[in-house]
Structure formats: structure tokens, C-alpha cells
């Protein structure tokens, strides 16, 4: 390793493009690894947003639920989310279909989930937060405290060296330039920076994306506490436009998140808000879209092509991310794998392929295949009202039984992201479960064909 120019050495510089979760996690791991090895590595993060402001430009748009698995990982790194950033400590989930709803419980009886909701920016548009509530700003300050340098402003261009021993040049600000031994792309999927990487012609193609929708509606802290009781509401209404939707309590605000099979825009949002089940779950007579904060961010629905090259690696959403769930945790995992690789195996494309890309694809992208199967099956079942109703009623009525516990566990793991999609798939399609549900499924099918409706509250 000593003398090998394609490794990080004492005095090397890492330039990270993007100070969202992936960029901050990479900086955290890199600074720790360098300390462990007794070398000094300069870490510079470029970030275009000012997370302290309360507007769209200041926010890495997300529903902002931080799952238990992520919190365990943050604990391991000594990263404690300050109380001022926590908007709600989530107690549980309520699962709504067209006809029924059920409370989902943690599969381990008596376990209190450590799930919290946060704002990613300085709060919704027009909000006046008394404190700095931004989770992303907290992370950025945390890694600054560890020794990272933060440069405010966007990277405009990147020039790769002519040979692997040369440095990478980054252009930013008013014609300023910085040379780095390693460039980390942690730029997400909601800016045009992916095009800069694609234009370098080393093979990077940004992930395919879908347009989603997020609304922060100001309903008032008391109303939210009283009605939602720190529960997340999940809606699977079997409509064509919206596959999954959620209500997440956050202090004075209720965050409404929508994900569809296709891009979501205002008509789909209005259609969802006018659905009778949704209307019932909102305060009567309130125009939710009045004075609210609405955005339509993109989520990745597949991995990027070739997110690595000599001295260059792309992590987080812009690289490889879990579909629909736990994006911040994927940012953590991809940054962890990538940092270990650059310190242990080096900065060459071969090292990054074997140490980062292939394991990340195995861990995240292959699991997304099962995720797609689960969501497809779910979409099909939720659109069959009577069948779904019979199956959910069965789960409720037999709560103490193995079958009911299994269904509850599968749904819990699906909505929280606590288990890999492969595990959820195995739970949902367990032969014993499917066999037990067969009679009620057939009953539901017959009712559906005959147009007979059986309404129950679960
Ligand atoms: C509707 C929706 C709901 C979601 N809900 C959740 C949830 O509840 N929980 C969860 O864990 N995840 C959720 N996610 C996913 C989560 O937001 C992302 O996975 C996560 O933010 C990815 O982190 P990142 O750092 O890779 O990218 P980002 O968070 O997008 O950060 C990228 C950063 O790079 C900066 N940047 C880009 N280009 C440049 C440049 N040229 N120069 C300087 N800076 C640049 C941007 O300003 C930004 O700050 C949700 C996403 C959506 C769309």
C-alpha cells in the first residue's frame, strides 16, 4: 500500500458533492477510518442548499420517517438525533384499505418502536420554527464537528484525470477549482448533477425515477396529537393512480406522502384527498391544500448504471437505494460500503466494483426485486375489495394465532421497512399462511362476483 498512488494517503483530499445524508455519512466514515489508520485526510463537502431556511430550495424533500434500524446504526456511530429535530415519536401504524382499517403492532409483543419523524429542511414554507429543526443540517454540523470542511454552493463541472494517478478537478463558485484524490457523488436524484456525471462518459447513467408528492398541512399540534396519537396512517386504497399514501404527524404539521405507479401530479393529489376514506381521516371542512407546503420530488426506482470509476464513487439515491423505503438507511449503507472499500482496497475502478458496487447491488438492488413482487401483489389484492376485506378480517379475528401474527408481522415489516423485502415476501407468501387464507379468499371472491358487500370495523 505505501507508495501506491491509487490509495488514499496522509494529506489526501476527498471531495463530496452533496451534503445530504449520503454525503454526511460518507464524511463521517472517512474521517473515522483515517483517524483509525493514523492518517490525515481532508474532507470537503459541497452543498448547494441552506437547510436552515423554510422553503423548497432548502429541503431534501422527504416524508422524514427515520426507522428503528437506522436509529440503531446512528447509535453505533455515536450520532444522536437532538430532541429539537424530533417532531414525533411514532407509536404505531394504522393501515387503511377501501373498507377497513387495522392497527399494526410490532411483531415482538410489548416492544416500543424507536421510529421518529423529522423535517429535512428548516420546516415547511411559511413556517416559523423557533429552533433549527433540520435533520440534514444537524448531520452536516455533526460532520463539520468531526473535521469536514463545508463549502456552500454547487459543483458545476468535474474533469477526470487523463491517467489513474492524476487528480480529479472540480469547478465551483465563480470559476474556482479544487483538486481531489477521490470524488464522491452524493447528489441525490432531485438536481441536474447526475447529468454532469453522465457527460463524463465513464458509463454512469442516473437511476430511473418516479415523481412523488409531499404535502405538509398545518393542522395544529393539538388536533394532530388528539386524532393521530403519534400514529402513521398508511393508505392502500387500490386506486390506479396512488399505490401507497401515508399521513405522518410532525408537530404542528401532518405530512402527506403519495407514491404511484406513475408520476404523481396535482390531479392525483386532489383525487386522493377527495377519496371518502381519506376525507374521514382529515379534519372536517378543512381545505388541506390551502396555505400548505407541496412538492413533487423524485425517488429512484432502480440503481444507477456504473456508479464508480477510478477515483470516483456515487452513493445514496444517486447510486443504489432501496425502492420506496428507508432511503436514509440506504444512504448510510452505501456510504459505509464505499468508505470501507476506498480505505481497504483503494480507489481504482476494479476495487470499487468488487468492494462497493457488487455488494451494494446484492444487498439493496437484488432485494428491490422482491420489493417489486410484493408491491405488485399488494396492488392486486388491495384493488380486490372483498378479498382484501375477508383476509384482513381473518387476521384481526385470529390475532393470537400463528397465521394472524404472521400477516401482522409481514405488514409491519412492509410499512416500516424493518425487514428486507425478501423476508416480507417469504412471510406474505408462506405456504401455510396462503393455505389458511384460501377459504376466506374464495369467500371474498364469491362475494365480489355476486356484488355482496360485508362491512366490518377491524
Ligand atoms: C416522497 C418521498 C418520501 C420519502 N420518505 C422517506 C422516509 O420517510 N424515510 C427515509 O429514510 N427516506 C425517505 N425518502 C428517501 C430519502 O429522502 C432519500 O433516500 C435520501 O434523502 C437520500 O439521501 P442522499 O444524500 O442520497 O440524497 P439527497 O437527500 O437528495 O441529498 C443530495 C444533496 O446533494 C446536494 N447537491 C446536488 N447536486 C449538488 C451539486 N452539484 N453541488 C453541491 N450540492 C449538490 C443537494 O442539494 C442535496 O442536499 C423519501 C423520498 C421521497 C421522494
Brief summary of the model shown:
The chain is an alpha+beta fold and 458 residues long. Helices cover 38% and strands 21% of the residues.
General description of the model:
Helix 8 runs antiparallel to helix 9, helix 9 runs parallel beside helix 12 and helix 10 packs across helix 13. The longest helix is centred in the C-terminal third of the chain and has 34 residues. The protein has 13 helices and 21 strands. The protein has 458 residues and is an alpha+beta fold. A seven-stranded mixed β-sheet has the order 6-5-15-16-17-14-18, with helices on both faces. It folds into three domains: 197 residues, 3-Layer(bba) Sandwich (FAD/NAD(P)-binding domain); 84 residues; 76 residues, no CATH class. Flavin-adenine dinucleotide binds next to helix 1, strand 2 and helix 8.
CATH topology heading of the largest domain:
FAD/NAD(P)-binding domain
Q: How far apart lie the N and C ends?
A: 63 Å
- Total strand segments: 21
Count of runs of 4 or more consecutive helical residues = 13
